[in-house]
Amino acid sequence: MPKNKVIYSSPFVPAEWIVAHGLLPSRRSCMGHGCDAPVHVMAGVCPYMRSFINRAAEDSDTLAIICATSCDQMRRGFDFVNLKTKVPCFLMNIPSSSQTPGAYTLYKHELERLGEFLISIGGLKPEPETLISIMLDYDRKRRELLSNQDTMTAGEFAQALDRFHDTGQIEMDHKKQESISRNIPLGIIGGPLAKEYFDIFDILADNEGEVVVNGTETGVRTLPSCFDLRRLSDEALQVLAESYFGAIPGIFERPNNRVFLWVREAVKNHGVRGMILVRYLWCDKWHSEVQRLREWLPVPLLDIELDGNPLDGRATNRIQSFMEMLQ
Amino acid sequence: MIELPLQISLEQWDRRYERLKADGLKEPWHGGQLSRHAHNGDTRLERLLFDNSAASLNLWNFLLTENVRLEKARQEGKKLIGVMKDLGTVPVMVYSHPDCVAFYPDGAWWIPCIMESNSGLLEIADSFGIDDSFCPVRAMVGAFATGAHFPLPDLSICSVGATCDDFSAIAQRINGLGFPIFWWEIPHRRPPEPGETSIELPGGLHASFSQVAFVKSEMARIKYMITELSEIELTNQMLASGIMKANQIRACLNDLRQTVFTARIAPLPALELLIAEMMAIHYCSDRDEVLGVLWGLLEMVKRRVAEEVGYFGPEAVRVFWINPVADIKVMNVLEKCGGRICGTEYLFTHALDHIPTNIVPLEALARMALVDPMVGPASDRAWRICDDIQRFGAEAVLISKIPGASHCALESSLIADEIRSRFNVPIVEIEVSSLSDASQSSLEARLCALVETVKEQKKRNDVCFSRA
Q1: B414 and chain A: CB distance < 8 Å anywhere?
Q2: Would you call B215 helix, strand, or coil by DSSP?
Q3: Confidence (pLDDT) at A209
Q4: Coil, helix or strand at residue A29
Q5: Does B173 reach chain A within 8 Å, measured CB to CB?
């Protein structure tokens, strides 16, 4: 299998930028099991990071891996790839103090540095027209995906988004329906929801719940905003930076009020009656906000910790109890 | 002739204190019997062994009266600035201003240890959703919430970016409780790439010009905030003078470390050296006084070395210690097991390096901030540790993991791998909670095993040598 994929997990890495360099982006959100290297340590280590790094390093089609500093464990994971494997790896500085002008400059500079890295592994220097046309293509696909959201179940939409992130293609294999009948409207927020955990949507549906807002790191919260078409021809990279870094609210931001505002708006706009937080074991950034979210949200919150293993009976029971409480 | 060094208990210190006073001991205002701190709640002191010198007494009294100094500074109209996470950079700026005083709310991580279970800080942190899966620095949440352990700062400044997640999360939680924080960005340090201008940093590492320029702009934001708060401009001249003073303190500490680590017989126990090293970060809230405290200690240590007196004899196993411990009692335990400190890396080597004085102050500070061992890759940290292991002749390495810290789980194994690849020294990893009494016997067993391993190796080498 040819090594042609640039693997990453952070929503702050623009797929358009990788495609513009003639390479294949693949934003992964799967756990994968059985890979114990290069991150061999387990105690105190986020199961998602460990799984992402180990699987990406092992996959035969991996050309390079991109890690982001927005998660300290991912930053440390980069050290493991760098020291223990020969896979080219790039660590992208995603500023945490995102609401300062300096942070914007740093992010844009990091995009340029990423470009140099992509060229060093065989990518091509992008022509401005190429970048613009790719940006427009991705913009259109994202809009198409979002416009179909109401005709899919939450699980189907999560699958479609996952495929789009992984391949850049839209494949909606659902049977088109005019409108899905909604049960109790729910929101789901948290870190990246690996597709191994997509059964949570079925468990919720079995208990008369329907996720109407997917605010996990792999959901709609982390989609970039639409590009400013008026400025695209003159400053495409700047527009790209603004639509990603300027628009995606991250829990790692300091202060992280944008995430809280996003969640509150989502609850209000979609009539959400209950919120589910999914976070990985050892993910301090989401864990530390559980109580604040409870205080902030006008609806009940169910906190589910994921340890890298499939959802067990205890988690299912807790979901059932939560749904009973909402009925 | 000087009095022989001896580790004594708190009770013994009281008796010794009376004798010293009778002999004419002169003390600064913070002086007095050590036991008064235990009576005021710092009960862990009752379980520690202390160096018996007047210089060490002065060190302890200085450390344990920080809050009095902070209150005094506030009464004098000075602004109190709580500095978080960066461990040594921003205080240099704050103390450059005549009307500002810096302290580290992070220091609250030792309160549950020093006050044992009396502080209740960890329970308060629990109640705010910051449970024991976080690093013990979560005690800071309780300290802010109660306002009982340090005066609430007029301004809090916290570094973010390439920092540990647990600290960032805890600081954000504090922010969420209504305590405003000024955040500044420290990017992950990386080596310059081809085509980028390389800048040498203190300690010998390199960073790209663009990274240094970015951090310099962040330093300028902090400078602006200090000026705004104090309503008196923090000038470059003030900063240059502040850097000079910081360098004096660093030079003194480096002399102290070098003297202690390389002495044939340890002239100072591990516990007092740890406390002294910590002074580099923020001067324990009195930049002028700290120099006097450290000079006193250095003078005493040099006297002991000259007279060949000290602790544990030359046979004590020379141990390099990585990361600070949440329970300071463990420093005593190492010595009980037959080890002595011979090199340390407590996560703030950048606070010990000489700050460049031949460039503009903000750039000098930016370069310093970028050398923070937490900011760069584990391999850089390991490289510096290995250099020091060689320089100080360490025979064993102890990695003390901080429970719940996002970095320890991952970087410890990488650092250990690098050390193993370069030296044939045994390495042991321990994890120390704020109160380690319950795990004392297993900690002791691990430390004794480390010491015994080195002693066995030495014996075998001696036999081989004599046979040869």
Answers
A1: yes
A2: helix
A3: 95
A4: coil
A5: yes
